[in-house]
Write a structure and sequence with these properties.
- This is Phosphodiesterase.
- It comes from Roseibium aggregatum.
- This protein has 279 residues and is of the alpha/beta class.
- It has one domain: Metallo-dependent phosphatases (Purple Acid Phosphatase, chain A, domain 2).
- Helix content is 20%, strand content 25%.
- Strand 10 and strand 11 form a beta hairpin.
- Helix 4 packs parallel to helix 6.
- The mean pLDDT is 95.
């Protein structure tokens, strides 16, 4: 059994500052990481799919290093549009894959238990949109061609459209080229993304795309044609990707906050669960 947690869009700020005036992203990121650390069974690894920082500030990366230092499992990072490939490579150089750069981008593969992670860099300098580029796509094609291990592909910008118009305008510009690469490869179990600050599941190139919400603020669900860019404080959450030979990859949305419970379905006196000897 392999269990991987996926969080995204932390938007860390220098200590004492909030994001967009209202969002205490540092506190919310710390709570999310605490929730993942408390899981039982423990995860085998944590994937963070971009926007660790809000402004690519060395102080924000320093806070990320401090938060991640409390985690005793491997952590795999990729840059988002609010980070930069150069800044992440420089400030997070001790993390896996950060030295695996080509054409200025960070992309690499790693084995996590029974799964393979392929981490892609969709950061496009100076832009909110994302792009993988020909060199990275050619590398991905080679990687998928020689290893049939069940695979998760992580990238910040989702390749599938969401219907949230203002976010779709800043999506992945070479999504069609990515589709051509991944479509023939049956071992690609998930594409896991961030960027949209909402939990979204969609099909892409015959695969399943799971898009994790932010650990902080969320984008308002507005499917109208000209919906304005707005955010709110719907409950932060993350994805858990579970894999076994019997199940394949199963993806669970898990909430950061605690809620009332748990309660037994059968609470009447004298009713017991099978194997429960308490009576």
């Amino acid at each position: 059994m392999t269990l991987i947690a996926h969080i995204t869009d932390l938007h860390l700020r220098p200590r004492g500052l909030t994001c967009y005036r209202f969002s205490d992203t540092n506190m919310l990121a710390e709570r999310a990481l605490g929730a993942v650390r408390a899981l039982d069974p423990k995860v085998d690894a944590l994937i963070v799919s971009g926007d660790l920082t809000d402004r690519d500030d060395p102080r924000e990366y320093a806070l990320a290093r401090d938060l991640f230092s409390r985690f005793d499992r491997p952590i795999y990072l990729i840059p988002g549009n609010h980070d930069s490939s150069e800044g992440m490579r420089r400030e997070m150089r001790d993390f896996p894959g950060m030295s695996e750069t080509r054409d200025g981008k960070i992309f690499y593969s790693a084995r996590i238990g029974s799964l393979r992670l392929i981490a892609l860099d969709s950061h496009l300098s100076g832009q909110s949109q994302g792009e993988l580029g020909d060199e990275q796509l050619a590398w991905l094609d080679r990687e998928l061609g020689h290893d049939s291990t069940p695979t998760l592909i992580a990238l910040h910008h989702p390749p599938a459209l969401s219907g949230i118009s203002h976010m779709d305008k800043i999506g992945l510009v070479d999504a069609d080229a990515l589709a051509e690469v991944v479509a023939p490869h049956a071992q690609v179990e998930r594409l896991i993304c961030g960027h949209l600050h909402r939990p979204i599941i969609a099909g892409f190139a015959g695969k399943i795309m799971t898009l994790a919400p932010s650990t902080g603020h969320q984008v308002v669900l507005d499917l109208s044609e000209h919906g304005p860019p707005m955010f709110n404080f719907e409950p932060p959450a993350y994805f858990l990707h579970y894999h076994s030979d019997k199940t394949g990859v199963v993806s669970h949305l898990a909430y950061v906050e605690n809620f009332p419970g748990p309660h037994h379905f059968f609470a009447d006196p004298g009713v017991t669960w099978p194997g429960d000897e308490r009576g």
